Predict the structure of Non-specific lipid-transfer protein.
Amino acid sequence: MRNITATTRTMLLLVITILMGNAYHGEAIACPQVNMYLAQCLPYLKAGGNPSPMCCNGLNSLKAAAPAKSDRQVACNCLKSVANTIPGINDDYAKQLPAKCGVNIGVPFSKTVDCNSIN
């Protein structure tokens, strides 16, 4: 599986998270959902520039799916985990993503955020 391209890996991640996300419908948000919403943001998070419309749509979907403080804290921990796990994610780009999309999700995307401080 070492020879899988980044695009193939992203597509596999997207399919898996969609399938897993269906199991959480109607329940509190979970990492597979968060990953699914932001899968289209990976190119921006690695290279900067402008996020794609699909990335910003995913960010809007994340905002709608995480209305409660507990949801935002879970989403924060998911984002922090992704930021620390996927190589090449630029923390500065991640912090700028909500503003670039014009979406205040109430969840910082950073490798060092304290998710317990989320309101």
About this structure: Residues 69-85 form the longest helix (17 residues). Helices lie at 6-21, 31-38, 42-47, 53-65, 69-85, 91-101. Residues 14-26 have pLDDT under 50 and may be disordered.
